[in-house]
């Protein structure tokens, strides 16, 4: 293909970037290299409602509400962080909201507004959906 030089081998785990003469496509930093950041991941067991395939999620500051979008449908899930494993569930009265477009990302502002990132731009939902 025309863009064959863009292909690069990718492996899981820490990435080692060669600084040899043959790697002219890479930018070299003028600051000393820091050791790689090691992240500890925890897998949560989840069961999504039928036909609900999440595309974006955001957890509020105190961990009590998880906002989850599946395409253009937004749900607010109430979370309990007291248990050994966090649990999030929709309450019986919780209503799903329809967003202006499919969500590619979610975020929360310091003022409590929910930001929805989509292909057309960023939408602000103020106030965020009520907590279940």
Sum up the structure in keywords.
8 strands, 132 residues, five-stranded antiparallel β-sheet, mainly beta
Describe it for me?
With 132 residues, this protein is mainly beta. The chain has strands at residues 56-59, 65-70, 73-80, 87-89, 97-98, 105-108, 114-117, 122-125. The chain contains no helices and eight strands. The strands form two sheets. Strands 1, 2, 3, 4 and 5 form a five-stranded antiparallel β-sheet that branches. A three-stranded antiparallel β-sheet has the order 6-7-8, with no helix packed on it.
**Assembly status:** single chain
The rounded distance between the terminal residues' Cα atoms is: 52 Å
The secondary-structure element order is: EEEEEEEE
- Whole-number radius of gyration? 20 Å
**Overall 3D shape:** globular
Low-pLDDT stretches are: none
């Amino acid at each position: 293909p025309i863009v064959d030089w863009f292909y690069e081998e990718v492996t899981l785990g820490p990435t080692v970037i060669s600084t040899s003469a043959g790697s002219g496509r890479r930018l070299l930093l003028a600051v000393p290299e820091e050791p790689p950041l090691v992240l500890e991941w925890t897998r949560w067991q989840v069961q999504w409602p039928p036909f609900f395939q999440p595309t974006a999620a955001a957890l509020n500051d105190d961990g009590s509400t998880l906002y989850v979008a599946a395409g253009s449908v937004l749900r607010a899930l109430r979370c309990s962080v007291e248990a050994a494993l966090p649990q999030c569930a929709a309450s019986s009265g919780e209503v799903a909201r329809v967003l202006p477009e499919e969500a590619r990302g979610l975020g929360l502002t310091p003022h409590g507004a929910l930001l929805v990132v989509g292909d057309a731009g960023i939408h602000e939902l103020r106030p965020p959906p009520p907590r279940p």
